[in-house]
Amino acid sequence: MNFYVLTLFPEMIEQGLNTSIIGRALEKGLLSLKTVDIRNFSENKHNRVDDYPYGGGAGMVMAPGPVYRAHQYVEELIRNEKNTAEFTGGINITGHEDINDSNTLKTNTKKTRVIYLTPQGRVFNQTMAEEFAKDEDLIFLCGHYEGIDERILEMIVTDYVSIGDYVLTGGELPSMVMIDAIARLVPGVLNNDVSAEFESFQDNLLEYPQYTRPEVFMERSVPEILLSGHHAKIEEWRKQQSILRTANTRPDLLEKAVLTSKEKKFLHD
Ligand code: 6GU
Asked: Which of 36, 69, 80, 103 is the most buried (most CB within 10 A)?
């Protein structure tokens, strides 16, 4: 899967995502990440990309031109990537079509999603991460200052996304949050391929507590059931813990969870 990020602070994205699990997946080629510095597409001699808002008011607004040209550049990158990748082993005769596995001609019409990070967007959740993870390419547009000229947003943005009800200084951290959540759903990114399926939010329940050695730490023992080797009992205990945790800190989630009548009794035991 390929991530493209349009930003005024490319180093922030690169440094933030080049570590740990995502860094390893980038090294392995399971993912690619390309940042595009919007400032490189300024046609102003001082490389300015922002200007005063029409109608007055505080702060600056990012001008449409540099964003438009940066997006055109990324679209072209993606087009070129497709034409070289898909024709290895075959001959590209026209340059205007894609050849699929059965060697039939098919015009590539699918436009790459452009996700604009903004507190005015839909609030990001696991269901949206799963939807976005189906795409081969994703473009993230990060704004700064008071935002971006509305006209270029109307022209290129397909999805307006927020990461929660608080205000940040720019879209860089939100894009990193989204890329992390989406990337870990790509097959092979997590070394353990069942773990992405069985955890929090899949069933609208929070995760159960985890323990490792030592068995006693500063007089606190690991719950005895976990040492019993009784797998069915352990599963039942973990489910109970999940339900109790969710009831305590996220009653809103618990309303959406589907529980058996036996599991509902856990709440009152
Ligand atoms: Cl996506 N952007 C900014 N600037 N602030 C936010 C946000 C996004 N999501 C929550 N707060």
From this structure: 36
Q: In a mutational test of the pocket of ligand 1, which residue from 123, 161, 166, 167 has the highest number of ligand atoms less than 8 Å from its CB?
A: 167
What is residue 11's predicted lDDT score, i.e. its pLDDT?
A: 98
What token pair was written down for 85?
Answer: 């990748």
Fold of 198-269: Trp Operon Repressor; Chain A (1.10.1270)
Please write the tens of the pLDDT for every residue from 231-252.
999 999 999 999 999 999 999 9
Q: Which residues line ligand 1 (CB under 6 A)?
A: 117-119, 162-164, 166-168, 170-171, 174
> CATH for 2-183, among 3.40.50.10540, 3.40.50.20, 3.90.550.10, 3.40.1280.10?
3.40.1280.10
Please classify residue 185 by burial: count the beta carbons closer than 10 Å to its beta carbon, then call 0-12 exposed, 13-18 middle and 19+ buried.
middle
pTM: 0.90
143 is in an annotated binding site: yes
C-alpha 176 to ligand 1 mean position (Å) = 12
59 is in an annotated binding site: no
